[in-house]
Design a protein that fits this description.
With 122 residues, the chain is α+β, with helices and mostly antiparallel strands. 18% of the residues lie in helices and 59% in strands. The protein has one domain: Beta Barrel (Lipocalin). Strand 3 and strand 4 form a beta hairpin. The protein is globular and about 35 Å long. The N and C termini lie far apart (54 Å). 17% of the residues are buried.
Length: 122
């Protein structure tokens, strides 16, 4: 009986720690994506974590775009954005120690990488 109680408490604590870990990812993030042609594109995301779901928006000079298909598993995350009818896949990892997100972007088979940092409100 004691073993069952201990195991149940251990599982509840593990889930609580996992949810608390990714609660820190919620917020505003910025970075710059340098395309293979050398052009730099500013990235601005507002991310919200809710359990294993990730939602939010991306903002560009063209406007605000919703993040879709967002998922969180461990320290990994993934989401998609739709730019002019093209679905762009984003996968990455959240690093709490550096308060950064390492992001891999797949744009029509072209692979790119960038790092997002938490935006500082002014």
């Amino acid at each position: 009986m004691k073993r069952k109680i201990f195991t149940t408490i251990a599982f509840v604590c593990c889930f609580a720690v996992a949810f608390a870990f990714f609660a820190d990812i919620s917020g505003k993030w910025t970075g710059v994506l340098t395309a293979p042609d050398g052009n730099a594109y500013p990235l601005n995301y507002t991310i919200k974590a809710d359990g294993d779901k990730l939602t939010g928006t991306g903002q560009s000079p063209q406007g605000v775009i919703d993040l879709t298909d967002g998922k969180i598993k461990g320290d990994s995350l993934e989401f998609a954005i739709d730019v002019n009818g093209v679905k762009i896949l984003n996968t990455g990892k959240y690093y709490s120690a550096g308060d950064s997100i390492s992001l891999n972007i797949d744009y029509q088979g072209m692979k790119m990488h960038t790092t997002l940092k938490r935006a500082v409100d002014k």
